[in-house]
Amino acid sequence: MKNFIVRTITAVFFVAAIVTSFLNPRAMTLLFSIVTGMTIWEFATLVNERPFITINRFICTVSGVYLFLAMTGYNSGMTPATVFIPYLVSIIYLMVAELYLKAKDPVNNWAYTMFSQLYIALPFSLLNVLAYRSNSYEIQYTYLMPLSVFAFLWVNDAGAYICGSLLGRHKLFPRISPGKSWEGSIGGGLLVMAAAVLVWYLTSQYDVNDLGLNAYEWAGLGLVVVIFGTWGDLIESLFKRTLGIKDSGNILPGHGGMLDRFDSTLMAVPASVVYLYTLTLL
């Protein structure tokens, strides 16, 4: 019971922080630049505990945060594309540095270094693609799309847990995550698609459906978030199993670490960007 209360309190504060931050572009930038840095730092700490692995935790973290801020500046129209040059320089440095460090396993050092950017920094940075919209006259910030992706992930988690607890019989991926069931995943997915149609209805009623998505396109976005969010969860589970750990950290009481909390996000956000670009709406 005590653990349930702790988890609930943490979840309430977590959701409140995310929702509140999306209502203001500066708050969103501040919160997710911190989240990006903390998640990369956590990831680098974990992989550096592996035999013969030593990646530059500080530069990986700074580079990832810089990429997020550079994407914010570029997508908001505040900075030109040249803002990405320092980031590219840092990546080149991280590659070349292995020539001089005499590490026992430079190939894996390279792999984990680049993975920190591809797996964590890039997905968080793509939140800016969802948040900023350009038209013929100006670039505007909108909270609807990034907040919807997070809301769909939360609805999916709740729906999958409830349906899995009540109806779960067939394991979804027992080798990696024995707690997940097909029934839970399907139930969560159906609930998200219903929530997506509800979002379409409400945003159309109040004239805030800024991308002009119809009900089917909103439902499609919900399905994309469910599928890729589930894969994101499974990928992080595989990562933890490979390292032989239960949680990626303990910074969030009752919820583990940053990777534990944002695992679904790291796949759902890039997939949502691809889906929306496919619809030629961005």
Task: Describe the protein in words.
The termini are far apart. With 282 residues, the chain is mainly α. The chain has helices at 2-22, 25-47, 57-75, 85-96, 98-101, 106-125, 127-131, 144-167, 182-205, 215-243, 258-262, 265-278, and strands at residues 132-134, 139-141, 171-173, 177-181.
Features of this protein?
282 residues; mainly alpha; two-stranded antiparallel ribbon
What proportion of the residues form beta strands (DSSP E)? Answer: under 5%
The radius of gyration is 20 Å
The oligomeric status of these chains comes to: single chain
Which structural class do you get from the secondary structure elements?
mainly alpha
Gross morphology:
globular
Low-confidence parts lasting 5 or more residues at pLDDT below 50? Answer: none
Largest sheet: 2 strands, antiparallel
* Number of alpha- plus pi-helical segments: 12
Helices and strands, in N-to-C order?
HHHHHHHEEHEEHHHH
For the largest sheet, list the strands in their spatial order.
Answer: 1-2
State the end-to-end distance. 46 Å
Helix content: over 70%
Q: How many E-type strands?
A: 4
- Summarize model confidence as the mean pLDDT: 92
Chart the SSEs and their pairings.
Blueprint: H1 2-22, H2 25-47, H3 57-75, H4 85-96, H5 98-101, H6 106-125, H7 127-131, E1 132-134, E2 139-141, H8 144-167, E3 171-173, E4 177-181, H9 182-205, H10 215-243, H11 258-262, H12 265-278
Antiparallel strand pairs: 1-2, 3-4
